[in-house]
Write a structure and sequence with these properties.
The protein has one domain (about 5-270): Divalent-metal-dependent TIM barrel enzymes (TIM Barrel, Alpha-Beta Barrel), CATH 3.20.20. Helix 1 links the parallel strand 1 (about 5) and strand 2. The strands form two sheets. An eight-stranded parallel β-barrel has the order 1-2-3-4-5-6-7-10. The chain is an alpha/beta fold. Helices cover about 40% and strands about 15% of the residues.
Length: about 280
């Protein structure tokens, strides 16, 4: 059965109790939880136990990488994921700490941005990045946890080729159709077919393409962008991992009416899928 959740960072809650109340109000008692605050912010220590005690299921965790600069496409290309030498030591430490937290709380999936992976196999930067991703993948695998790389920062074909070269069965993809549009990296419907063998989770987010090449597209409420939702959700519904449906996580990173936008996304998904809980 496919489960529907909401990214914890989309709601801006001050603590787990407020997050739980917001999720219950939205009628979606499940979340993908940002893990770094659970390590570094006093209000979020013990968050997973607190959420579970209030009837919230934590479907997965999210590991945010240090030093990422989303100011422009150029800055995130240089600083995103595991690409930066300057941030690698801190990011490895984050991965270790998040791995321990996920293991302690029986989370079986953690997602992260791998960074802009170069297309050419002979590119030394690609080799370095894949070595770092193997290190992180193995770190989590030793704790019984799979990881999923966020889509969008490279084309689906490049990511599929990198995953093949990475050669680790416990690494997959967190597919974000809006990111494909925001980064200008191709058609999300075609991309989800290319990445189907690695699909582990999907973000429900929408966007419009940029009118100025080399700049960001624009995130918009689900149903108001360029994602072909009926066809996209039908394609995702056909994909199975270990015999199970792929969980769908609503993500809203901008806008002044996030609760309303999340409800609209929930209702859109419900209209197109009968197997969701």
């Amino acid at each position: 059965m496919t489960k529907l959740g909401v990214c914890s960072w989309s709601l801006g809650a001050r603590d787990p109790s407020q997050l739980a109340k917001r999720l219950h109000t939205l009628g979606i008692p499940r979340t993908q939880l940002a893990l770094i605050p659970c390590l570094d912010q006093p209000a979020w220590l013990g968050a997973i136990d607190a959420l579970q005690s209030e009837g919230i299921e934590v479907l997965s965790g999210m590991l945010a990488m240090a030093g990422e600069d989303y100011s422009t496409l150029e800055t995130i290309a240089a600083t995103g994921g595991v690409r930066s030498d300057e941030s690698w030591g801190e990011n490895l430490d984050r991965a270790l700490r998040c791995g321990d937290l996920a293991e302690k709380n029986s989370l079986n999936l953690v997602t992260l941005h791998g960074g802009f992976i170069p297309h050419a196999r002979r590119d030394p930067l690609r080799s370095k990045m894949l070595d770092r991703l193997r290190t992180i993948t193995d770190l989590f695998a030793q704790r019984g946890i799979a990881i999923a790389l966020e889509t969008g920062q490279e084309s689906a074909a490049t990511l599929a080729d990198a995953l093949t070269e990475l050669d680790r069965p416990t690494v997959g993809v967190n597919f974000d159709p809006a990111n494909m549009i925001l980064y200008g990296m191709g058609d999300p419907l075609e991309a989800v077919g290319t990445l189907a063998p690695w699909l582990r989770q999907v973000h429900i987010k929408d966007a419009l393409p940029t009118q100025h090449p080399g700049t960001w597209g624009t995130e918009v409420p689900v149903g108001q962008g360029a994602v072909p939702w009926e066809a996209f959700l039908a394609a995702v519904d056909r994909i199975r991992f270990a015999g199970q449906g792929i969980d769908l996580i609503i993500e809203r990173e901008s806008g002044k009416c996030r609760d309303g936008d999340i409800v609209a996304a929930r209702d859109l998904v419900a209209r197109h899928l009968c197997t969701i809980v």
